[in-house]
Amino acid sequence: xxxxxxxxxxxxxxxxxxxxxxxxxxxxxGAVYGTAYPGSIPDMSGISGPDAVRRAITEASVHVDxxxxxxxxxxxxxxxxxxxxxxxxxxxxxxxxxxxAAIEAVTRYIRAAGAIPVLIGGDDSAAIPFMRGLSDxxxxxxxxxxxxxxxRDWIGDETLGYSSTMRRASELPFVRSMTQVGIRAVGxxxxxxxxxxxxxxxxxxxxxxVRASGAAEIADAIPRDGALLIxxxxxxxxxxxxxxxxxxxxxxxxLEEVTxxxxxxxxxxxLAGFSIVEFxxxxxxxxMTATVVGRLICHVLGNLARKNGx
Length: 310
Fold this sequence. Notes:
Blueprint: E1 5-6, E2 26-31, H1 49-61, E3 67-68, E4 73-74, E5 83-89, H2 96-112, E6 116-121, H3 127-132, E7 140-145, H4 165-170, E8 175-183, H5 191-200, E9 203-206, H6 207-213, H7 215-220, E10 227-233, H8 255-266, E11 271-277, H9 288-305
Parallel strand pairs: 2-5, 2-6, 6-11, 7-8, 7-10, 8-9, 10-11
Antiparallel strand pairs: 1-5, 3-4
Helix pairs in contact: 1-9, 8-9
């Protein structure tokens, strides 16, 4: 075993804690660290990102069996979906290779158990081993919701950092398409990264294009064969509702735009996994970002409970 799962003091939405994934369930786990760039020392004073999300959504939602007006019924549809919280995979700020091995291993374990993995990051580098852990899927289509395209081949000597997530995803033989939604402003991408992404076949959709086309039209172009990975970097959302991010940029998607896109993408498709990253609790305001992250996870669970993505 190349990973260790650590129980957490408070589970997501007060759902059952578990040491093992169960067939047919959704298994939530956190990963605080991924691959840090040389010289970067994350500020992890205080509560971790995954724990902040767990606490915020539990406090905001009262009880999982209460009526959820976004779904016209209780979130998990009166027990139609089994969800467990496995806690956090143990990661360390100075162990890039070990972190990647642990995240990939626990993802593979969850998939082998017949469950759907849900990752709460960590920065976007945590998504690289998470995607690698989905290799049991023959055909994977990725919906990335992010302000940035993340197609850098390397920064410094590091090829597995958070600016390279989708570049590394494009190299996985089972990844057949990617739709990148919410792109805006300026990030690490230069002309060569944009041209490389387009040449590979990635579909880049800006915030303006989302509003011009609508969620249903964007999701309809995602292939329906194989399986779907939804990957969210929370800086895709407007900083007025998600201030606690690593790379804040004016503008962005609204919560309802993202939840509509999640619902449309999951309809008629099989979900292989869901990851949400780049929440920085030290930059949050009144737990706002943590609650939004938790609510986005809830929308994945609510749609699964209604058989939209199974």
